[in-house]
Specification:
Shape: globular
Number of strands: 11
Order of helices and strands: HHEHEHEHEHEEHHEHEHHHHEHHEEHH
Strand content: 5-15%
Number of helices: 17
Helix content: 25-40%
Structural class: alpha/beta
Largest sheet: 11 strands, mixed
Distance between the termini: 14 Å
């Protein structure tokens, strides 16, 4: 691994903008890294080497002409979850039904990255249509966790998180519907942020559950995530759910937090997220992180949010209901896979054959659950009741934030489990998102920052920080303060503990 692939995004940007190194050299180093290690990791579904080098060359040319950098991250490479439309690369959403499909337009997030001079390396693997917690549901095979190649990298955005942990990219973009940024970040020892719902445009994000889906930044440091957040965030008139308000000052908050002073910050520990079902090593790492927050001057209290106990069942009625509607567009008639169209079958038969061949088991399961929940005679009993629970969860957050500035919990109840361990047990798979789902249901901002390794298996553990809507900067400040103290105590960044030699040689 070349030294450049170990640098933070902020450090790479500084070096590129001061001409210490070229954007092309940085991009080439990461492409070489992908070529060396992505075989066993399988983070990427598509690598656009030519497009990436051309984009990097444009950044270098502008800097050579004494133009100001297009953004604080101009020239820095990035891995993009394959759920955002890209006019120059395929967008498959990890599904066989969209194999090879190339959209006619860029998502707003993609357009903003290009305008900012961020270099898109390619598209990363994911659970099909973002439905899963392990990236085992991809139609193109699972991604492997760089910390232990026999374990999952989380999901649905396991490709994005694995690309960071394997040092294939310093930045990534993911999406979070019930934890699909934060849970992979937790189990790979990286940073992942779910912004306030509506804080990042969903235009061009292929929909799974429209009231829950949210794109967000992924990185190896809190500051890197904040810098990326400010590029992709902000109002978009093409997205009717986009918030017409300035992006919270997340980069400033991250820099402020890195000083390590949390005096005056009130932190609530969610009592519902502990106890039975939680791996002891996860709880011990979380408790040590809370002790560190206290040492930094934060006031820590316990906070009860009783409706959180019902978040998981409510989510698995609301999200499948919305997915059963959203995925109706993949019918084999307009684009993507088409099966059985030999001229002798009706359109209905072709649609049925296409959906049967194109969708995987988990997508079919959720479509059927959602269709049933929305059906005549059951709507009020299932979907309607779930929406009432959603309101109660939102009220629990509001009551909690009257007492504290942020809430904290483990990001996920366990460390990364082994590939294949839960594929036949959907409920066990769903429990991986137990702690992350409430923030999606309420629309709050939330992030995951690494908080050490479990003493049981040496795998990463994540600290989740939840903030009020449109107060994303609060989470960044606390996470950056914790990150600085954690690294100071260890003498290096936690991510440096990832067993790189094993990844590169296996």
């Amino acid at each position: 691994m070349t030294e450049l692939t170990r640098w933070t995004a902020a450090a790479l940007a500084q070096a590129i903008h001061t001409r210490e190194v070229t954007a092309v050299a940085v991009t080439r180093a990461h492409l070489d890294r992908i070529a060396a290690v992505d075989g066993p990791v399988h983070a990427f579904l598509h690598v656009d080497a030519g497009g990436a080098l051309a984009a990097a060359a444009r950044v270098d040319a502008a800097l050579d002409d004494d133009e100001a950098p297009a953004s604080p991250l101009a020239g820095v490479p990035l891995a993009l979850k394959d759920v955002f439309t890209t006019a120059d690369m395929p967008t498959t959403c990890g599904s066989r039904t969209l194999r090879g499909w190339q959209p006619p337009y860029d998502a707003t997030v993609v357009g903003r990255l290009r305008e900012a001079g961020v270099v898109i390396l390619g598209k990363t693997n994911m659970d099909e249509f973002a439905m899963g917690s392990s990236t085992e549901n991809s139609g193109y095979g699972p991604t492997h966790n760089p910390w232990d190649l026999d374990r999952i990298p989380g999901g649905s955005g396991g490709g994005a998180s694995a690309s960071l942990a394997a040092f294939e990219a310093p930045l990534a973009i993911g999406t979070d519907t019930g934890g699909s940024i934060r849970q992979p970040s937790s189990v790979t020892g990286t940073v992942g942020v779910k912004p306030t719902y509506g804080g990042v445009s969903r235009y061009g994000l292929v929909a799974f559950s429209s009231s829950l889906d949210q794109g967000g930044p992924c990185a190896r440091t809190v500051l890197d995530a904040a810098l990326l957040h400010e590029i992709i965030g902000g109002h978009d008139p093409l997205d009717s759910t986009s918030i017409d308000a300035p992006v919270p000052p997340v980069a400033e908050a991250a820099r402020q937090g890195s000083s390590g002073d949390l005096h005056g910050v009130r932190v609530g520990v969610v009592t519902q997220f502990s106890g039975e079902g939680y791996q002891p090593g996860v709880l011990r790492a979380f408790e040590a992180a809370v002790e560190q927050l206290t040492a930094l001057g934060a006031e820590v209290v316990e906070v009860s949010c009783p409706s959180f106990d019902y978040a998981l069942p409510a989510y698995y009625l609301i999200a499948p209901s919305e997915c059963s509607s959203n995925l109706a567009r993949f019918d084999g008639m307009r684009y993507g896979l088409r099966e059985g169209d030999d001229g002798s079958r009706s359109a209905e038969e072709v649609m049925a054959r296409t959906r049967d061949a194109g969708f995987g088991a988990e997508v079919k399961r959720r479509i059927m659950i959602g269709t049933y929940a929305l059906s005549s005679g059951y709507y009020d009993a299932y979907y309607g009741q779930a929406q009432k629970v959603r309101t109660l969860i939102r009220r629990d957050f509001e009551a909690a934030f009257e007492r504290v500035d942020v809430l904290v919990s483990p990001t996920t109840p366990t460390t990364a489990f082994r590939i294949g361990e839960r594929v036949d047990d959907p409920l066990a798979m769903y429990l991986a998102d137990l702690c992350t789902i409430p923030a999606n249901l309420a629309g709050n901002a939330a992030l995951s920052v690494p908080c050490g390794l479990s003493e049981e298996d040496g795998m990463p553990v994540g600290l989740q920080v939840m903030s009020p809507t449109q107060a994303d900067h609060r989470g960044y400040r606390l996470a950056a303060a914790y990150e600085a103290a954690r690294d100071a105590a260890a003498g290096e960044s936690l991510i440096n503990a990832v067993p790189q030699l094993e990844v590169a040689t296996r």
